[in-house]
Every structure is written in C-alpha cells, then in structure tokens.
C-alpha cells in the first residue's frame, strides 16, 4: 500500500490521541462517568435519523473522556477566576448584543448591550471576573488568553477571527483552556473544521420562528443542570444543526412537539425528532467546551419578563462555572 502524506498525518493524529487516552488507565479517578445506557447513547449523538453518518475526529482527542484534557497547571485558583467574552460580529448581529463595541478591552457599554451586561453581572454575583471585547487583536496571542480560565463566544458571527487569533485560540485550548459557546457562536467560523469540532461536531444550519417551547433537562448531574426542572418553558429560535453533535454529553433538549409553529427551518431542515439538543459539553483537543444554542430573545438577558429566563441564566451560569474550574465539569 502506498503511504501518502495525508494518510501518514491521519495515522499520526490517531496515534497521538490514543497515547493521550492511555495516559490514565481505565477505572482510575479520571475515567469517564457512564451512568446509564440512555446517557451513553446521547453522547454518541443518537437522534433517530441519518444525520450522524459523518462523525469526523478532527485529528484530536475529543469526546466526554476527561483524559482528553491537558491539566498543565496553567490556571492557578489562587489568582482568581477570569472569563473573557468575545462578541465580534462579521455578519448579522443579534439584538441582544446591541450596539457594536468600541476597540480595546472593556469599552463603555450602552443600554442595549444587554447580553454582555448580564454576563458581567453573573460574574459580579458569583465570584469571577469578566472582561469583554469585540477587538480581535485582544485574542491574537495565546499567552494573553492564558490569563483567562475560559473564553466565551457570545453570538459572534461569521469570520470573526483573523489568522493570528485562530492560532491563539487553538493553542489556548490545547494548553487546557476553556470555551463557552452561546447561541450564534454556532454561526461563526463556518469554514474552519477545528472550530466545528470545538462546538461538538456541530454547526448552525437554520431555525424556525422565535417561539415558545419546552426544554427537557436530559442530564441532572451536571453543574449546569443541577436544580433545574425536568421540563421548563422557554422561548428561542431552536437551532437546527448540520452537522449534528456527536460524542458529547447532551445536557438539555427541546421537545419539538411543544413548538406551536413547528421546528422546520427557513432552509427546509425538518428538525431532529426525539432528540433535539440545545446544550451539551465535551473535552476537546486538550481543553473543555460547554455549548448552548439558547439565548436568542433579548428578554432572556434582561429583567423584562420571559418565562424560563431565570432558568436559562442559571443553566448558563452553571456551565460557565464548570468551564472556569469553579465546579466539576461535564458530569
């Protein structure tokens, strides 16, 4: 058989992943928690359809196994916990982001920057610092990112990163960094396969109308789902995903049968049937990622009444705290 350079690269990548997984023997304290057949099936990305025929490994260690995490001591709890929120939009902009931010770190916020303000307030109330920016130069050095325990992409859109920032994000994750992807983080960097893998082998495809529905709490053990009701009302766009997340721990789904206007998207996607995920987590290429497609409605982020908005923010806070290292991750 003729060994091509691409074949050799694939073999090397697979071998590296295998060596990383072998670093901790099965049955050790770091072994993954497989609590039920249902949970294991969800982690494989089962949705009852043919949408999961492709499950690329992206050439990295990925999945729910904590042995895919690089604990190199880059984040010292004695220094406190810090989150960087990145919300740059290179395409359409969600109303919850409000007016585009000025250059630099922590520019003045306006009244309509409601989602960023909400995350800053979550940090103030829960013991972690929050910086925010839409200036891509603030991301373009991996060493700079290492001052943060996690980076949140908050409804960023399209090609929000230049090449140096892409490199810095990838090196940050490989060094044990944490990533939180919220709502249109799934509509970002479409043509970057590594980022698609960071999202859990998932990307935004389309959505139906913003409408009320019922969120089903699938996993009740994770920091982001503890204390949440088994079913709770919320309003969102209910993203349809291509690809569909695989080898992740699904935390919450939407019950498509509760959507009064149906789940069919603007580009014709029929939805995901019995298992339509809206939040999940995984270990990826040395780092940790917690993802949610929720958060579209401006009322999700403000004091203006919206059924379930308090549960959404509790869910998000739990995910952020787990990625920061304040609570156990991806249980």
TrEMBL record:
Record-annotated ThuA-like domain positions: 113-321
Alphabetically ordered keywords of this record: Signal
SUPFAM superfamilies linked to this entry: Class I glutamine amidotransferase-like (SSF52317)
KW Signal (keyword) present: yes
Gene3D superfamilies for the chain: 3.40.50.880
Pfam families for the chain: ThuA
Signal sequence interval, chain numbering: 1-29
InterPro entries membership: Class_I_gatase-like (IPR029062), ThuA-like (IPR029010)
Coiled coil stretches, renumbered: none
Protein name according to UniProt: ThuA domain-containing protein
């Amino acid at each position: 058989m003729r060994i091509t350079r691409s074949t050799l690269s694939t073999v090397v990548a697979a071998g590296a992943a295998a060596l990383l997984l072998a670093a901790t023997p099965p049955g050790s304290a770091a072994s993954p928690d497989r609590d039920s057949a249902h949970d294991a099936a969800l982690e494989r990305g089962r949705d009852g359809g043919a949408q999961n025929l492709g499950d690329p490994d992206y050439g990295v260690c990925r999945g729910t196994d904590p042995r895919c995490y690089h604990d190199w001591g880059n984040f010292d709890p004695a220094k406190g916990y810090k989150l960087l929120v990145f919300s740059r939009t290179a395409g359409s902009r969600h109303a919850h982001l409000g007016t585009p931010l000025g250059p630099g770190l922590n520019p003045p916020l306006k009244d309509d920057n409601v989602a960023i303000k909400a995350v800053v307030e979550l940090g103030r109330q829960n013991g972690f610092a929050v910086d925010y920016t839409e200036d891509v130069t603030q991301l373009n050095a991996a060493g700079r990112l290492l001052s943060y325990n996690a980076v949140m992409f908050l409804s960023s859109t399209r090609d929000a990163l230049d090449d140096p920032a892409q490199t810095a994000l990838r090196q940050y994750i490989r060094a044990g960094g944490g990533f939180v992807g919220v709502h249109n983080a799934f509509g970002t960097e479409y043509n970057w396969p590594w980022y698609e893998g960071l999202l859990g082998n998932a990307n935004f495809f389309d959505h139906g109308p913003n409408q009320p529905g019922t969120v089903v709490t699938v996993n009740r053990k994770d920091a982001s789902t503890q204390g949440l009701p088994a079913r709770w009302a919320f309003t969102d766009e209910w993203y349809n995903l291509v690809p569909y997340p695989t080898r992740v721990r699904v935390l919450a789904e939407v019950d498509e049968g509760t959507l009064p206007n149906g789940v069919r998207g603007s580009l014709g996607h029929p939805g995901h049937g019995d298992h339509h995920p809206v939040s999940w987590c995984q270990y990826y290429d040395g780092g940790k990622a917690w993802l949610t497609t929720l958060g579209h409605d401006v009322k999700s982020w403000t004091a203006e009444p919206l059924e379930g908005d308090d549960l959404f923010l509790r869910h998000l806070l739990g995910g952020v705290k787990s990625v920061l290292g304040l609570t156990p991750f991806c249980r």
